[in-house]
Prior knowledge:
The structure is a single chain. This protein is mainly alpha-helical. The protein has one domain. 77% of the residues lie in helices and 2% in strands. It contains 13 helices and 2 strands, in the order ααααααααααααββα. The protein has a two-stranded antiparallel ribbon with strand order 1-2. β1 and β2 form a beta hairpin. The model has no long low-confidence stretch (mean pLDDT 87). It is found in: Cell membrane. Its main location: membrane. InterPro entries: Cyt-d_oxidase_su2 (IPR003317). Keywords: Cell membrane, Membrane, Transmembrane, Transmembrane helix.
Amino acid sequence: MSYVVITFLWLSILLYFLLGGADFGAGIVELFTSSRNVDRTRRTLYHAIGPIWEANHMWLIIAIVILFVGFPVIYSELSIYLHIPLVVMLMGIIARGTAFVFRHYDAVRDDMQEIYNRVFVWSSFITPLFLGITAGSTVSGHIQPDAKDFMTAYVLGWFNWFSISVGFFTVALCGFLAAVYLIGEADEESARKGFIRKARNANIIAVVCGILVFVAAEVDHVPLVTWVFGDSVGVTAVIAATLSLVALWRLIPKKRRLALRILVAFQVTMILLAISYAHFPNIIIMAGGKTLSLYDYQAPAKTMSALGWALLIGSAFILPALFYLYYSFQIKRMRHFEEA
């Protein structure tokens, strides 16, 4: 049953990045939209993420619950040594959600709308930044459990070149995901071309940030090159991600909305696979070579069995309802296009 739990953990992290990451990316897209086009961009964002944006945080909650129940030692280590970036990330989620609700549903339209807008776009940037910093820190080898001072124990574990570069790479990927998703949401050709330009720019920035991640990995002595190119799975994933990117840009002029979303989701999945496969099941790599493995630091077998069955039974009820939620609002969106 432990394999079922680990599979749900990996899928929940992946889906949170693909769906929740695209939500964050929508705010990033708005952040880098000119004042002339920002109102039109906001209307598109409301149609795209308004009805279902809260549901995307379900995947983060599932991942946290799995770690807390099934891998308590790993959960506690993350919570202790990376509590600063985790708190910033959670505060960003709260600030972003609050600003989104108030700027959309506030009955009074006044100067506070500008504050809500600023909080929304900057928290949309900061949250994935610290999500990426946290992810990079877990495998950076900078966490020092034997540290004797606050800076070494709780700051330098995540405040390093590699972790920060992963954070900016995460921001770029979220912006790229959102821009590609939003191409199919635009109801005007000029808006569609605008999102294509944003997708192209985000793609370029993501490539640059990806190169910087490899440079930072060399500086901080993180064996990223070996992880990615040291086995057939990593190389295959890189090739698949590259081919999917080429196919994506060839399909964009043909307005293949569903195909574009599948390709960009597949590309991001391959990137995550290439980075994570080589050091699996070690989810945390600390200074001195100490690792925390998903196999070695599990809860007792009875707990894992109960958790696995809870995930299987719960998914049988929740996933159909969630898919219907997405489907129903997509149908509503298509009818809006037809009426327009």
